[in-house]
Amino acid sequence: MLCASKSRDLRSLALSCVILVSIAPSLARADDPPVAPPATPAVEPAPIDPGPLAPRAFPAGDAATTGALFSDYEHRANARVERIATSRGGLPIRAITLHGTDAKRKLPALLIVGGMDGETMMSTEQVFAALKAFDGEQKTLLESMRVYAIPEANPDARAVAFKTSYPRSTNLRAVDDDRDGTVDEDGPRDVNGDGVITMMRRVAPPGRTATHVVDAADPRIVRTANHDKSEVATHEVFIEGLDADSDGLMSEDGAGGVDLDRNFPHRYPESARDAGPYQLSEPESLGIAKFVRDHPEIATAIVFGRHDTLAHFPDTKDKDSTGRTPMVYHEDDHALYREFGKLWKDSTKIEKSDTADLAGSLMIWLADHRGITAVAANGWARPELPKLPEGTPVPAETGDGEQAAWLAVSDRMYGGRGFIAWKTFDHPKLGPVEIGGFAPFFRESPTAVQASAIADKSAQFVVAAMAKRPEITVSDVVVTALADGLARIEMRVTNKGTMPSISAMGRINGVLPPIVVRLALKPDQVLSGRPVEKIERLAAGASVDYQWIVRMPTAGALDITVGGPFFDTLTRTARVGKEASR
Length: 582
Hints:
By secondary structure, the protein is an alpha+beta fold. It has 3 domains: 63-168 and 257-382 and 446-465, Zn peptidases (Aminopeptidase, 3-Layer(aba) Sandwich); 176-255 and 399-442, no CATH class; 472-581, Immunoglobulins (Immunoglobulin-like), CATH 2.60.40.10. Helices cover 21% and strands 22% of the residues. It contains 11 helices and 22 strands. It has helices at 2-5, 10-23, 63-74, 122-132, 155-164, 283-293, 334-348, 362-368, 401-413, 448-465, 504-509, and strands at 79-86, 92-98, 109-113, 146-150, 199-203, 212-214, 222-224, 235-239, 298-304, 373-377, 419-427, 431-438, 472-474, 478-481, 486-495, 515-519, 526-528, 532-535, 543-551, 557-564, 567-575, 578-581. A 6-stranded mixed sheet has the order 1-2-4-3-9-10, with helices on both faces. The longest helix has 18 residues, at 448-465. Residues 1-42 have low confidence and may be disordered.
């Protein structure tokens, strides 16, 4: 006001204000507190560059590169590589076995699987990182538990993803998605030649049904109209493509195929187009199933991919319409799987993870049909952004918080690489459109730099999981001589391990063989007790005591054997007057 009252024009106003400011310090009293210098605006720290988007910087999906990943294990004394199936595209599906000094010794085994699709590129890296963890001091764990690993269950999907730089979840089965009698004739393609396949949007012309709106707060966002807020849809949205078959549909019949993680029997989604014509219809899924069938010693399984049951623990009380079949885990296995969830968070410090519908997945087939203690692990989620400095304007609220959050990640962490700006294009079939949207793999997969860090953490979980296993021990027998050549025999079978011999679901479905206790006697020589006993399930730390009254053989010795799918047969020899074991 002082300046304004002494000035009649802009020039005199500026001059008087400068004079006033220049003499202001001389008007201050000596006992006045010092004037603080103006605050320096806070600057957001530069984030660590996550590197190029997937699949760049990941190991390529071609046969030569894939083979190189396995070659290191082909010549190791404690490893074996075998081909368990051939993909529809002719690529090998290999299993790696890591064992201790005695390869023939029967031990409980851990199965690790990755590469079920061409979206979660990191899953293959997680498997190899886990295998690498057993190169050093953790190698001693292989003396008590074997490791089977299938790093690349769907090599075709990975190879195509590298070739097209576009995420792919299915194998190479030819599928007529639009039921027009021709297969794979109208898939997504790079129409505008910018090197990526994104989305197309246009204002819906008369006669077409609009489904989306362009967000008013951030026009990069195209979303479904919110009818609760009286929004009226204005746009159509398509995957970038050409309508090559001229059926009026865009990019609806691309190459392949069957999603292997929807092709397994438990909760098989038979109506889904990508689930396959029937369960285990694909050579890849069938090969994995046969491998699991042929290895009943598999006690635990970890499937890396787009699913997660560790950070996203499922409701174990959730059942299907019959009320008997668990949707994911049996409720009696709740505590067992809770332990694995805690183990994941303690060893990786990862609290958040993406997940997907488990219907038809490998993981729930292992858990519910095979009775194997199986978990699904991912580890990737939308990165957390650092807090904005104080005073930073709050972005306007959009109609789609999830898209807005990903755009913020792209802008502040990826230098904008996560989003392709919308640009106009004259489409040969649709006319004027805009092409752009989120970059392929930006939301589906971490970069190779991010994946390496997550894979190292995942490997720590795998090592920790190796400590959870059943361990069956048998006590020496106690023999008490009775009259007329009879004897009482007592023995105890104990699970000294940290895991039950089989899950509760495994006991119910009865697929895996039980622990069998057998007396080397004819049935008529056993007067009390049974000559063959079965232990369907033995909890961690639990024991079963046995007592028989038998007619001892003339040799005065009796063998008792205890056998199971994950340990060598244990034999105890009972003799009247003394005990022995071998």
